[in-house]
Amino acid sequence: MAENGEQRGEKCVRIEKELPIAFGNFTNQENWDFFYAARGAGNFSEWYADWPQLRTLLRNHLSFPPSAPPPEELSILVPACGNSRLSEHLYDDGFRNITNVDFSREVISAMMKRNLRERPGMRWRVMDMTDMQFASGTVDAIIDKGGLDALMEPNIDPRLGTIYLSEAKRLLKAGGKYICLTAAQSHVLGLLFRKFRFGWKVNLYAVAQEPSSGTTKQRAFMFIAEKYILTVVSQISFMDECSVESHGNQVRELFEALERENTVRAEYSNGTDTWHSLNDLNQGVQGNIGVLEPGRAVNLFLGETGVSRFFYSGLLLDGRPLPIPFSHQYGVLFVYSMQTFHGLLTSSPRSWALAICHKAARLLIVVLDANHNVLANDIESDIFRFIKQLAPGDNIEEDKIVITYADEGYKQKKNLYKVTSTLTGPIAIDDVIYFDPPGDIPTPGKSKDSIFRRLRFGRTEAFARSEALLSTQVENKKVPAASRTLKKGKPRMFESQPSDSQASSGDTKVDHKYLSSGLYKGLLSGLLLFSVHSKRTIPAGRLVKTVIIGLGAGLLPMSLRNYVPTLKIECVELDLVVLNVAKEYFSFEEDDSLKVHITDAMKFVKERAGINSSKIDVLIIDVDSSDSSSGLISPEAEFVEEPFLLAAKDSLSDKGLFILKLATGYPGVRAAVHSKLQMVFSSNLFSMPVDEGYSELIFALKKESPVIGEEELTQACEALRRSLEHNSGDWIKQTLVVSKNIAPLRKS
Known about the structure:
Blueprint: E1 12-14, H1 15-18, H2 29-39, E2 44-46, H3 51-61, E3 76-79, H4 86-92, E4 98-102, H5 105-115, E5 123-126, E6 139-145, H6 147-151, H7 159-171, E7 172-182, H8 186-195, E8 200-206, E9 221-227, E10 237-239, H9 244-269, H10 278-282, E11 297-302, E12 312-318, E13 328-335, H11 338-346, H12 348-358, E14 360-367, H13 376-389, E15 401-405, E16 410-421, E17 425-434, E18 451-457, E19 465-471, E20 484-486, E21 509-510, H14 519-533, E22 544-549, H15 555-563, E23 567-573, H16 576-586, E24 594-598, H17 601-609, E25 616-621, H18 642-651, E26 652-663, H19 667-681, E27 685-690, E28 695-701, H20 710-724, H21 730-739, E29 743-744
Parallel strand pairs: 1-2, 3-4, 3-6, 4-5, 6-7, 8-10, 13-14, 13-15, 22-23, 22-25, 23-24, 25-26
Antiparallel strand pairs: 7-9, 8-9, 11-12, 12-14, 16-17, 17-18, 18-19, 19-20, 19-21, 26-28, 27-28, 27-29
């Protein structure tokens, strides 16, 4: 056992007392290098609490089932380790498989020297905690002592904490634990709550104070999230040894935030389907799983703590008799899209049609998201033991299990460009040719070998993308811009149109004549419909101030600029890399009527809310979720929280229109979002189903009276028809048809 540091004369620096005020930005590497270099290897620093206050809690939560590795083999990661002795204490307590990371080369060098002889098995890496170079699903526990709090300084980029937590979640194995020591400030706690909803068991503890610290010191808390089944949302348990009376506002605010979060979780859990484990099925809760039962459909999850790297959500279908014999007894289909998978769950005809297509007596559909970011062979190896237990009959031969991966029906794909952004993560550009081209391709140059250009975000857990049609026969004039935004899986078309700028080498350009169905068409229809209904008049030289949150490939703003020339469009995008990709590969162009702001969306909207002359006429939220545990495919959870919705309403002009794309596979989540929208926007809320009803567009008017009912909507549709009757083009007809699908949002 190594000596205690203080017994050897080492000095413990209390960070909260010793850091100079001028230290400033906690995310600046040079600041930390200076701090650690000035103190040398002999000193150590502790945030919030020391080993005696943490030991019992940590040991209890580092106890895993018997199937898991023993303590000395548990893989433990300590991000932003600094010069704390936490990992040294863990090592001396029997946990020997510890990796420490920090972006300060000074502190990693000092810690290696300090521990080389006494703790030779300890590993140290110079690494940014927001971009950790380890394989997915390889860590049993992550112990974060103040790292997240440092990232969440109010005056720095708010995305850093989100990116770091996505990394932490990616690295954890099935049943792995994220253990965070935090001061539980409201913005930090809010992020933790949002990022660990679906698929996590969460506990919160008040850390015991040092005996000499008295009762006035700020309390530290331990947030523990255990990786569980994605389809489950559970309440947060709080183990408390402190009282509101003795700790004032800090604890009171925590109690209030916890109560609000558990209310949200209760709402989200309403209406969720029943999911079964493999153990449930083996015990007969759905009949004899070893025997085919035609027409049986079971939602299930696979994976086991200490056994598999990942958990998996699945749908098991026992096929109904076909006119021709089944091609095989048992098939497994891997789907790379949470949206596609939820679409199958909510549409029985679609799931059974897929089963018929695969001609399997039993089909197991397994969904993969960005957390399963490993090779296909690694996935099959990880899950195969569970797949085999679901085979119908006894002792089915392994080579008789037919495993396939859902592609997108393309016969050719070319990778054009890849880049990794600090904020957005991996970004890829592909050109593909489909076997069955989606949508209505315009007739000059119509071809079965039409090329589509796709934008993919690797860190977005739903694999959100934008996609545009390419052409070599684009007329040399500016016309509407064509696009579609979709998830990985069977393509769904969204409307847009043409631009004349070149998108790649040679003569190939983005073809904005391409008209498609779905989201963008619905958005355009609603925008025109409510503009007509409000009888909005535009003074000479006055354009409709329109703000789009989220740029992607820039296809939506290009489309709107061309279809509706009376719009003055501003896009809000946090990542400059995304803007550069949109310009270089998707013909995105800024001009007097279309500008991009590289800034945080919440900050931008709040600023507009406070300036009367800058009020927004149309505010559109087009941001897909980067985190499936929020229960949302679109938008990001923060855009349907009350603070943002209130700021959005305040930012609108008197006749302002708010448009939101909402996609989720959970009825409770949808109902909760509807409820929040109704609280903020009250009466004039409307909905339009898109993507076969899986997603919807929400339209909200700031003006609460007069209330627009179904009769008024019908009159508005007729007025829209009259206003467009002298225009030509298929998009006019499509817009008129789709506008009739808008209806008042029913009370939850």
